[in-house]
Amino acid sequence: MTAEPAVFAAVFAALYAAHELGDHWVQTHHQALTKGRLDTTGRLACLRHVASLTAVKVAALLLVALVCGIVFPFGGALVALALGVDAVSHYWADRRHTLAALADRIGKGDFVRLGDGFAAPAGTGAYALDQSWHIAWLLVTSLLASLGTA
């Protein structure tokens, strides 16, 4: 099973734009500050963030599919699966301690701790690793969602 390159490109572009919107504009201040806590409050904040982010991604994919005339095979089941994979990967990384532990394990511990998260949260090593993780999973998500379109 293969993917139509133009469909893959449109899906990736839609998911990337939706990621930027959902991760930075739609996410609430409370979610951003709380989602990494190691308690139920943190888990629920992260879950709410991922749910709203996924809703933005669904809306973006629907818009792109409508405007570009994309018909996803299998009734969109692969798209739903792909968005589920993306949501799980996003939740995992946004719990923060998980990504930090991975960074430590692969020798990126010093990088993940660069910068002051309160003074410049978007200028830290943790933010750079977080965003690169999410974008890499958008690639996987886009490929999976586009399967069967060629």
Automatic annotation (TrEMBL):
<protein>
    <recommendedName>
        <fullName>Transcriptional regulator</fullName>
    </recommendedName>
</protein>
<keyword id="KW-0472">Membrane</keyword>
<feature type="transmembrane region" description="Helical">
    <location>
        <begin position="58"/>
        <end position="85"/>
    </location>
</feature>
<keyword id="KW-1133">Transmembrane helix</keyword>
<keyword id="KW-0812">Transmembrane</keyword>
